[in-house]
Amino acid sequence: MPALQGVDLRVERGELVALTGPSGSGKSTILNIAGLIDHADAGEVLLQGRRVHDADAHSATLLRRDAIGFIFQGFNLVPVMTVADNVDYPLFLAGVPLRERRERVADMLAAVGLAEHAAHRPDALSGGQRQRVAIARALVKRPSLVIADEPTASLDSHTADQVLDLMRALGHAEGAAFLIATHDARLTDRCDRIIGLLDGQIQAAVAPLRPALRSPA
Questions:
Q1: How far, in whole angstroms, is CA 155 from its chain's centroid?
Q2: DSSP class of residue 6?
Q3: How much is the pLDDT for 216?
Q4: What's the 3-state SS for 81-134?
Q5: Has residue 214 been placed in a domain?
Q6: Contacting residues for 105 by C-beta, under 8 A, at least 6 apart
């Protein structure tokens, strides 16, 4: 049976879209295809109006580096790098000048509440702190699309609220689209849309019952 069947999904600039559904419903497959990690056997993937589903390996790598941010449940931090260096790394790869990199890293670490941990290594942090580092790393390069897999799973309520506010702020300020696989009701209730999946098919696409996440002043 195909992993996905007839999925037609569009995420607008500045929009937070949650993917929900049981294990095996197709959430991870959609994230991997949208993030140019996997290739679909059929259909199209467009990023900012550009056809990208047939990009070769080199082109896909450049697109992921420059236009797509990733937030993984397992953090995927580089253990030998400091917190600041982990957040700086995508900017370094993109060729951002050193002075600008330092300013953007400092601003992002302050935004996620980790400024005092800039010189620490990931193994000195709690799970929730490591996830915040991973979120800062994804957001610091101001991507067009952020792919997130359970981004609030290891965060307490206060920290999760901070992270969600940060996502909304980036979405509005930079026009980034967020595609988020989650089981967290705190997140789904505050996203712009909720896409329900079952057996590789979209079962429902609804707006949350509660008001969407507020935009910081």
A1: 15
A2: S
A3: 41
A4: CCHHHHHHHHHHHCCCCHHHHHHHHHHHHHHCCCHHHCCCCHHHCCHHHHHHHH
A5: no
A6: 84, 87, 88, 91, 118, 136, 140
Q: How far is CA 16 from CA 11, 159, 206, in A?
A: 8, 18, 12
Q: How many helices (H) and strands (E) does the chain have?
A: 7, 8
Q: Residue 98: which residues within 8 A CB-CB, separation 6 or more?
A: none
Whether 4 is covered by a domain: the verdict is no
Buried-exposed string 112-146: b where 16+ CB fall within 10 A, e elsewhere = bbbeebbeebbeebeeebbbbbbbbbbbbbebbbb
Residues of the chain scoring pLDDT < 50: 211-217
Task: Give dist(CA 139, CA 131) in Å, integer.
Answer: 12
* Strands 201-206 vs 46-47: parallel, antiparallel or unpaired: unpaired
- Write the pLDDT tens digit of every residue in 162-183: 778 777 777 777 778 999 998 8
Q: Is residue 3 part of a domain?
A: no
Round to whole Å and give the CA distance between 55 and 74.
Answer: 27
Tally of domains within the chain: 1
pTM of the full structure: 0.83
Domain hosting residue 69, numbered range: 16-77+143-206
Amino acid letter, 31:
L
**Looking at residue 157, which CATH number applies to its domain?**
3.40.50.300
